[in-house]
Amino acid sequence: MSVAAVTATTEGYLLVLAIMWPVAGILVALVVNGRNIERVAYIVLPIGFAIATAVVMAVAQGGQSQIYVVGGWAPPLGVALRADGISAAMMMTTAMVICATGLFARGEFVQPAEGPEARAPYVFWILLFSIWSALNALVLGSDLFNLYVALELLTFAAVPLVCLKGQKETIEAALRYMLFALIGSVLYLLGAVMIYGLYGTLDIGLLSGRVRAEPATWIAAALMTVGLLAKTALFPLHLWLPPAHAGAPAPGSAILSALVVKGSFFLIVRIWFDAMPGHLSFAAAQLLAALGAGAILVGSVLALRQQRLKLMIAYSTIAQLGYLFFIFPLATGFAAGIVWSGLAWTGSWMQLFSHAFAKAAMFMAAGLIAEALGHDRIADLGGIGRKLPITMFAFALSGLSLIGVPPSGGFVAKWLLLIATINEGQWWWAAVIVVGGLLAGGYIFMVLGRLLADPLSPLVIRGAVSRSRELVALSLAVCAVLLGLVPLQPSDFLRIGR
Amino acid sequence: MSSTMDAFTVLAISCGAFFFVAGTIGLLRFPDVPTRLHALTKADNLGLGLVALGLLPQVAGPLAALKLIIVWLFALISGAIVTQLIVRAVR
Amino acid sequence: MPEFLFGAALFILGTIAVGLVRILYSRQAADCMMAAQLIGTGGVAILLLLAVATDTPPIVDVALMLALLAAFASVAFVGGLQGKASAQAEDHRK
Amino acid sequence: MAAAFDIGLIVLLVGIGAWMIVVRDVVVATIIFVVFGLLMAIAWVRLSAVDVALTEAAIGSGITGTLLLGAAARLKGADAGGTRLSFPITVVAAVLCAMISASLAAVALLLTYPAPTLAPMAMQNLDQTGLGNPVAAVLFAYRALDTLLEKVVLLLALVGVWSLAPDRAWRGVPSLDTTVPPSDILAFFAQILPPFGIVFAIYMTWTGASNPGGAFQGGTVLAVMWLLVMMAGVMRAPSISNVWLRWLLVAGPALFLIVGFTGVFIADGFLAYPPAYAKALIVAVEAALAVSIAATLGLLAAGPPERMQQK
Amino acid sequence: MTTATLFGLCSSALVGLGLFGVIVDPHPLRKILAFNLLGSGVFLLFGVVARRGAAAGLGGDPVPQALVITGIVVAFAATALAVALVLRLFEPEAGNAVESEATSAGLEVDGGRS
Question: Could you state, in order of their start, the residue ranges of all structural domains in chain C?
């Protein structure tokens, strides 16, 4: 993707719109009376979705990256936005999950019909818009400092989401998350300034042509990567994730687990595949994958040992994030003769997207269960399948995708990665993928096994669960499964722009 | 720049520096808060004042000189207020 | 002349370092704030000296900013120490 | 002599930094931090970055110091000590940090001349922005997108701080004005300083177009003045649901966004300015931003609303 | 040894100290202080890079200088949010301040409510 002179493409304005439309939503939401904030959401969400769709169409039809040069100031002086295949796909996933979450949250974050503006709904919708804007800025940004601002925007939106309920435990979790995230972004910034000091530009496209193999570059790249790993919660920097993701209200957990942690992962891929292509050494790639493997094993085993549903799902997120890091040894193309391994590339992104849908659906289902029962102790879920069939069906479908049962998206992802391990001659990762699938089966069936079991004590449904919210969770789970039925089309799309 | 003016600058700034030293030593050696405050105000008012005074001939134009004096005045006001607040806090 | 001004700035920097010793050994918060105030004034003096020594007039604006805001931190601190008790008293009234 | 001054400054900076980490008392550590911020401002001057020195003096030492001092004073009674790490882990952390320091130092020594720079390019295009201060041109023209997003970050941080309010205090006021007992000295101070502060803030914002300074620095001075009058009880802290207050918060970023989109029709695109009106547009945006920044920073330092306004 | 190199060494020392403080210090407010020290070290490196890029009649490259200004503002916002979290965590009545009428799906993280 080396670009001699950066020029805007015809549909480039969509990119700036994708970032700024939710920003406009934030500004309007801040001033309107809290009561009207949901109406703002009804306008922001569909139009934002339409913008994301338009970007995907433009990228797909053009068959090349869409570029926008902000203010007419071309890099290195100015900042450019760039949408290639993976950013467009990320944008689409983001739009779908956010809009679904918006629909789901409608039942939870409502302003009371009477009385003054309430805190939680006001804050929630603003945070939702912010996360959308930040994620779009992250996947479209092509300037390392611009991406830093986007990262901080994401952090500042995610942290208050964790402690929206205000209990002491969630505040503690939010503070821990905040500290990890801040150290992460400072280390990233440190690497970025070194890069500027070395090459006089922060633009990823320009960097790819200028980067030299030298110690200072490796130090910079290592700092950026470690910082982003802390934000992605890769083992052993995962300690902040379970309390944070489990403590948030259900729509928040869905967004945090499905999307927010992926933002920093996306940036790691940008650095190693776009800014510094060919500079990732075999050993470094093996190290990243080894940490990923550690995440899969440790995360899954810990998930198996959880007593509470939301914590189990959060540990499962740690494990599922581990798979993404196989992209580094498998897609770089270390095997002789293969420069580029599209198989692992597609597999990793499929894993990211299917996990996003499945995990969002799963957290929503867990939220509905907790709402209905007033608790989420796994041991006391016996017979829940009879009481909440749609919710549990959504849970089961997303669980199958996480395990990798055909024909789900998770299956295709893991299958592609397995084939890639053989092709690349790195069979040792295949073992981890298989064991990870078995462990995932263990913790999913730990819940599913109780679906139709006779309850120890009769289940008491405390609150009515809205049918439409159940359907939102189900449709996301169906998306995760359907992703497996269209395995060939995305692989070309994901390679647009490289 | 005339050498007389330079000599004035050197003299005034040297005196200013002396008051800073005096204030610091007072802060370290004096036995209790009121006497230390006394030392502090000396350094604040006179030290900075003399430094600013010494710099006056070296800056270009009356506006720049005025700014130096304003800086000193600000330091004077805030110094006085802080001193008062500290006295009350101690009491 | 710049050499002399830099020398004077270094000298005042030295007094700042010595003033820090007060913070090191002090038992009372008031001592700390006094030392901080003295250091603030010293910083302003250093900035003025540097502005003339390097012939960069905008540095005077930095000195002005510091002189304007230096007292504010002290106010916040003193207020914070004293106000704690009264804020708690108010909470009890509720 | 200049080199001697730099070395003295650096030794002091590192010494104070180390001291801040090891000192026992939180309040003392915070006071050391304020001193550190002051020395950083001098360091920025020595690095020929007067714009940054102004920002550091205003934000780094001024308002961050206030925020942390207030927090340290409030936490003094609370048992806020977390769990101490075991000795081996501390040693591992120390070794790790030393390694990072060493590699950074190596990079600092390895960097060769001529250093890459965008200074000539920034100066060449300065005419088109109508500005005289290249740093302002970077902030409001070349990389305006960063600046706009950063304003959203500020607003978002404020929403985050507000979100920590107890539900009953939502729509209430921050408890700033109760933290300081009414005192004639403070009230006097809060009445004489703000006029100077406001004049200086306007000067900062205005001069920023051609000299060091700008909306950030001006806005921060305004924020500090506002905090002062609130703390002294001269002016009441506003309820966070006050409509005017919310408009004030949004005005700057909103104008920036609108001007940005106007660029699509009258210039090269989003956040572009027609050269003839560039300076006027940028100064207008900066003025609105200064006000919004003042409101945002002030409320950030004031903390979440804690109680309802007394009638 | 140039000014830029000297401050580069200063920056590396500050980064190491700050990072150590953030990791090791048990007190949350001290962690925030250390984070600010770490941030100052990183920003100082921007200043060094800018100083090295002095050209075209400027004392430093304006691009990194402008980035630092943005960075300082973001760091302040982070500090404010973190301080608010710490204060909320340790305020005396934090334990019973939960009134989640809006979050009806109140789901506790630990300890059963039922």
Answer: 2-93
- Partner-chain contact D71 E66, CB within 8 Å: no
In a domain, A352, yes or no: yes
B58 contact C CB<8A: yes
Lowest mean pLDDT among A132-141, D50-59, D116-125: D116-125
Q: What is the pLDDT of residues A77-113, one digit of tens each?
A: 999 999 988 999 999 999 999 999 999 988 778 777 7
Q: One-letter amino acid identity for A155?
A: T
A50 Cβ contact partners less than 8 Å away, ≥ 6 residues apart: none
What is the spatial distance between Cα C39 and Cα C18, in angstroms, rounded to a whole number? Answer: 10
Query: Considering the domain boundaries, does residue A142 fall inside one?
Result: no
Q: What is the pLDDT of residues D31-48, one digit of tens each?
A: 888 889 999 999 999 999
Place of tokens 């040297």: B14
B74 touches chain D (CB under 8 A): yes
The answer to whether the Cβ–Cβ distance between D221 and C40 falls below 8 Å is no
Chains D and A make contact, 3+ CB pairs within 8 Å: yes
Beta bridge partners of A141: A81
Question: For residue range C53-84, what is the model confidence (pLDDT) as tens digits?
Answer: 988 889 999 999 998 887 777 776 666 555 44
| CA–CA gap between residue D293 and residue D216 (Å, rounded) | 7
Q: Would residue A187 count as lying in a domain?
A: no
**Interacting residues of E74 by C-beta distance below 8 A, sequence separation 6+:** A149, A152, D150, D153
Q: Which residues pair with D174 in a beta bridge?
A: D305
pLDDT value of position D192: 84
Residues of chain E found within 8 Å of residue D60, distances taken between Cβ atoms: 36, 40, 72, 76
CA angle E17, D70, D204 (to 5 degrees): 85
Q: CB pairs below 8 Å between B and C: how many?
A: 130
B window 71-90, beta carbon within 8 A of C: 71, 74-75, 77-79, 81-82, 85-86, 88-90
Domain E3-92 CATH class label: mainly alpha
Could you tell me the pLDDT band of residue D82, with boundaries at 50, 70 and 90? Answer: low
The ipTM assigned to this model is 0.93
pTM reported for the whole predicted model: 0.93
Look-up of token digits 């205090």: D169
C19 touches chain B (CB under 8 A): yes
Name the average pLDDT for chain A.
88
CB A196 within 8 A of CB A217: no
Does A314 map to a domain? yes
From C88's Cα to the closest Cα of chain B, the distance in A is 18
- For C41, the closest of B14, B37, B47 (CB atoms) is B47
Total domains in chain A come to 1
| Annotated domain spans of chain D | 1-116, 133-311
What's the token pair of residue D309?
């306004």
Distance from the A122 Cα atom to the nearest Cα atom in chain D, whole angstroms: 9
Using the beta-carbon criterion (under 8 Å), do D213 and C84 form an inter-chain contact? no
